[in-house]
């Protein structure tokens, strides 16, 4: 579902930071919408910008330079007010020409003014709209921060994901979210996991009930968001299925979330396996891979070298 934000809500959320005032608000509230990372580049940062003849913005920022240009070139008024314009932000406490103001009112364009510099306003609005309009999806699982690597633990209900998360936290790692993870695509290849507000600090463990991780382990055991870099799926496998797993590189595939392909490692669950140690090793392995290392290639090179020496 396409994300959107109304101009009234945008004004309220940034009012304390930008200290802006509303000079004109159309009777009908306008909505800004779009995917910041869509191919047509509609939404988020792409919605906001300075005066642009070629690709007009939905939200236009006007500072000293822009208003001076318009004053010197009144014939550019039509291009300065394109049909898609919904909000004009006047920065640096610049005075608004009466003729321009009437034109804005006639076209039902919202007008706001702020004493802050145009570049600062532009950067803050772009960042805010990127966050608000970024695509998002709720995913079942447990998200933990292990050695700085965001791991999404998945598996069937009752497989032991929360118990594993509790053991990892007891070993000094951090919990992000239990049971429900809000995934947000903040950049073309960056997916972050967030904890929904009602679930923050809590972990539900079968047989034990609700556990307040902050109370048990302190504030350092909790983090409210983390970039997801690896999915670890816990599976209940039979002995024959375990025997079929590639012994050199494990059972690895990919999981697609919001158009981002994440590496997924499958770990068999059994009483004889220490899953917490395996998950820590998986986090270290992912860090090595992202740093350019290839442990399998190193192993094969070492074997070839050893055979050659013999």
UniProtKB/TrEMBL annotation:
Domain spans labelled HPr kinase/phosphorylase C-terminal: 131-302
InterPro entries referenced in this protein's UniProt entry, alphabetically: HPr(Ser)_kin/Pase, Hpr_kin/Pase_C, Hpr_kin/Pase_Hpr_N, P-loop_NTPase, Ser_kin/Pase_Hpr-like_N_sf
SUPFAM superfamilies: HprK N-terminal domain-like, PEP carboxykinase-like
Reactions mediated catalytically: [HPr protein]-L-serine + ATP = [HPr protein]-O-phospho-L-serine + ADP + H(+); [HPr protein]-O-phospho-L-serine + phosphate + H(+) = [HPr protein]-L-serine + diphosphate
Any GO BP annotation: regulation of carbohydrate metabolic process
Domain HPr(Ser) kinase/phosphorylase N-terminal: 44-129
UniProt GO molecular function: ATP binding; phosphorelay sensor kinase activity; protein serine/threonine kinase activity
Gene3D superfamilies for the chain: HprK N-terminal domain-like, P-loop containing nucleotide triphosphate hydrolases
Keywords: ATP-binding, Kinase, Multifunctional enzyme, Nucleotide-binding, Serine/threonine-protein kinase, Transferase
Subunit composition and interactions: Homohexamer.
UniProt record similarity statement: Belongs to the HPrK/P family.
Protein known as: HPr(Ser) kinase/phosphatase
